[in-house]
Amino acid sequence: MSTVTESTDPDSDRDAHTERDYSTARERVLSQVRQSPLAMIGASIAVFLLLLTVVTLVDRHLLNRTLITTLLHDPYATHPENRLQAPTLVHPFGTDEQGRDILVRVIYGAKTSVIVGVLSVTFASIVGVAIGSVSAYYGRIVDMAGMRLMDVLLSFPAILLAIALMATLGRGLENIILALGVVYVPTFARVTRSEMLSQKEQEYADAARVVGYPDRNIILKELLPNCLTPIIVQATFSIALAIIAEAALSFLGLGVSPPTPTWGMMLSKGKPYITDAWWYMLFPGLAIMVTVLGFNLLGDSLRDALDPQEQGEGRI
After folding, report:
1. Which candidate, 205, 241, 240, 238, places its Cα nearest to that of 222?
2. Domain assignment of residue 3, yes or no
3. How many structural domains is the chain composed of?
4. Distance between CA 66 and CA 74 in Å, rounded?
């Protein structure tokens, strides 16, 4: 006589259910990107910029700019005889006031913008999610202290706070990442807190507390996975905002030190020549516009794909 044994392990059932939820969300995102032309454009721009960043990092630090110099020009080499040359087949984006090729400097400038955008948002999301989760879960004094600190940071305009931090920290890639990361921490803290407050009142959270799970496990393994949708969407939009902020800081002379090319610095350097060399400011400005547009389109598609209400209502 055979005996059928059924699994009664709640942890394994919960893990299987979580895995199915993640798989469904991943399928929705991929389907949304494939079906929407705008989402495909945004995803293509984001992926292209990430690949371009990886290639330029390898070329800069491992190949000593051999690849870019062989294919196009050296982004740091000056040629005074080619000063402010209009776009040609040799220099498709023209040259700057020192005869450097603007195309390769725009390509190398993408590295700085993407690194600052991704790393500053990563820092802001980690710190902000931690503050928002702890504040929402424990409430009372902890919540009041955490949110009042966030209110202090939000009371300053983002760009002014970034300028003040850069004036204190000094120029440099690491300082830009830290300054912009601090600026965007309150956004992630408030988004996480709002979602966590609703999730911690659900029955599964009460069940976890009754079973005796430690608070850390409840926050990290039970509540936080169900709060990831708005955090991921916010991160995508914040990357675009961080790229604009980095360009603004570089334009004001508070970014990466020369001669490292950045889009904001190129806009600043090209300002005196705007009437005589229109290409100097045009192409870095277009690079910023296309990059921000790509991440915003990607954020819109992620929001549509991950929003349960959108899925429930359906699309016409």
Report:
1. 205
2. no
3. 1
4. 8
7-21, 35-49, 100-114, 196-210: least confidently modelled range: 7-21
| More reliable by pLDDT, 133 or 1 | 133
Helix 140-154 vs helix 173-199: crossing angle, to nearest 10 = 140
Provide the pLDDT for residue 315.
39
Q: State pLDDT tens for residues 189-240.
A: 999 999 998 888 888 888 888 888 888 888 888 888 888 888 988 999 999 9
SS3 state of residue 168: helix
101: β partners: 95
∠ CA 90-96-100, nearest 5°, is 60
Q: What range defines the domain where residue 54 resides?
A: 26-313
Q: Model's pTM, two decimal places?
A: 0.84
- Residue 86 pLDDT: 93
Q: Which residues of 219-247 are buried (b: 16+ CB within 10 A; e: fewer)?
A: bebbbbebbbbbbbbbbbbbbbbbbbbbb
Cβ-contact 101, 93 below 8 angstroms: yes
**Distance between CA 228 and CA 236 in Å, rounded?**
12
Alpha-carbon distance 171 to 255, whole Å? 6
Domain-located, residue 21: no
- CATH number at 93 reads 1.10.3720.10
**Is 106 part of a structural domain of the chain?**
yes
